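Collaborator request, handled under Task 6.
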Amino acid sequence: MTIQKKLLLLTTVLCSCFLAACEAPKKDEPSKKTTIEEIQREKGKPAKVTPVSKQTLTDYRTFSGAISGKQQVSAIAKMADPIKEIKVSIGSTVKKDQVLAEYFFTGDNTGKEQAEEQVKLLEASTKRMQEVYAKGGISKQDLEQVEMQLRLAKMGLETAKRASVILSPSNGVVTSIDIEQGQVPKLGSPLFTIAQLNEVILTIPVSTKDIGAFKKGLKASIEINDKVIEGKVTKVPMAANEMTRFFPVEITFKNKDRQLLPGMFVTTKIAAKNIEGIAVPNEAIVYQNGNNYVWTIDEGKASRKLVTLGVADAKYTQIQSGIELSDIVMIEGMSKMNQGDKVLIVDQN
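Structure tokens returned to the collaborator:
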């Protein structure tokens, strides 16, 4: 074999090896991966949606105020003398004209003793006059005049007795005592408060803006000690308080268990009125930077819309503006959405 033939053969072998090496599959070449972002761009971001609906919602208003007893009255000081003894305590049940407290006897409050002496004298005088009349010694008119003086003296004694003690002005429960033993009350000042507690009154200040929603009979409730106490509006004034410029609306509550006591400051919820309008589930509302939004789907894409809220209850919120009844809103998946994202509906209520 000539040298030329040997070179040609060697060249052919080398070319064959090179071509074979070029055509052999590459080992350990990584396969192309598909990311979640790419899938979402193609198919859309998952979201749970529901249609906007019409709902009838109750407009609840909350107000706070102080409790007072029904038919609440005060026993006042009729003398400016020291208190000798207080005979009741807060929570005591009393009857009308029951003695609540007594005054000390001093040289200045001798009215009762003087009245007692006058009654004794007139009783003796009347007895003698009756004996004289029986014997024909005086006329019936003279006897009647003496008897009249005795009746007036007895009335004066009763007045003096009542002035020497502090009496309950009505049946009820003692809800406050504003005097202590030994103290000297100011004449005419309230010393004891007596109230009926089977029913109590909550007085709430209502502004001019809200008073139009109130009328007698509206239902109200107070939650206290894990118990709901029901009541209703019983007084809606026609004029505002001149000092506060608020309307003092009164709500009466049954208080059989006496859980509401005078002086308590409580909050009540009032069912002002029912409102019908378009609404969305509460979980559809997104609060951000001081505004409220809902996410809708427009032609398969996410759209964030600014909305104005109205009345809300435990499930739904009224939407006053921003969306239409025909809209579909998201109730899950909003946190991952951006404006214009393609949406994949995974569940629809």
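The cover message to the collaborator said: "DSSP finds four helices and 19 strands in the chain. The helical segments are 3-23, 36-43, 111-134, 140-163. Please let us know whether this matches your experimental observations."
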